[in-house]
Amino acid sequence: MSNTAIIAEYNPFHNGHKYLIDTAKYETNSRHIFAIMSGNFVQRGSLSICSKYDRAAAAINGGLSAVFELPAYYALGSARDFAQGSIQLLNATRSVDYLAFGVENKDNQKFDQFSDLLAKESQTYQFSLREKLAKGISFPKARASALIEILGEEVREFITLPNNNLALSYMVALKQSNSSIKPIMIERKNVAHHSKVANENFASASYIRTNIMKGLPISSFIPEESYQKMASSLESPLSNSDQSYLSLLISQILLDGSLEDKNIWELSPDFARRLNKIKKPFLYEELCEYCHTKNLTRTHVERVLMHLILGMKESEANTIKANGLGYLNLLALDNQSSDLIKEMKENSELSIITKKAAYKPLSQADRYSWAMDKKAVNLYQSLLFYRWQKYIPSELESTVVTNSIKN
Questions:
Q1: What is the pTM of this model?
Q2: DSSP per residue over 253-277, as a string?
């Protein structure tokens, strides 16, 4: 039987994620549905609302066979890096038949046409894309704008919808890597990606996070068995807007020598100048607003600030992009799905990490990445303790979460 993968953040896991899992299982008849999920920091440069192990446990209780961590250098990359890194790892498992993802419009013909054009990167497309990136436009918006120039204004609505845009990134990465993995598109149910309103028992992750930070009830938007795994953690949530410690960390870094010498990933000269010019002391929100310009989007600002806090190096990111990564860190496993791990260990080009302290990276790229994954846990551990006086173990002290509730 087949295996289906999902690329996710589950920040937090909710009924919409459960719907995608159940629908993917029905459409593919797969033996296993598993996810590769961002860790304690997510693609927008934010702290996850609760720890990666709690979110992974919730997803297992929501019907997944296993959850693996998307390494930090991929999880905190641009939309293109996020997609390409995820597909690189899924290809290397040699155990994935389908990739399931949500879309606003399930139009296979349009997705195939647009992803073909993007994957082949014609000279006309490359010129238009470079022109827009040079103006400081974010990659997803620059790509969409280039497509509109080539294909016409009528495609604007389709390609600028957030799930459609991310789906295109996955399909382009699949095509450019000559992947055998087949895409499975599932229409999003009831609410839009960043919707600020709920619809029955469905709500966007951003709406749920807002309610959590306001102390409002959210349990109706999350499967009961999944909520049980996160309930305690969601009483002590983390959020960038709630973290005065982030501004203290950044202030210390700015006092400690020249930013140009730190080789921080994606930190442009313009961004570095703005960081050096801001009046100190400052709150995190004030810093983000000061650095946010027409050419530096808010999402990009927060992501690069997280690169700065974690000490993510441009040189290390380039090594990882050039060589790919050779490991997957298992966070959670359904007790009935050990055969999936056995299959991956037999077929995969990757090291499947089940015993954290025993893992020894083999390549330079893996050493850079694994060190950053451990550092990210240590930072999250410290922020959680300072904010809530709550302790979580380091990565090397952590064990795979298991359960046996799945039908």
A1: 0.94
A2: HHHSS-GGGGTBTT--HHHHHHHHH
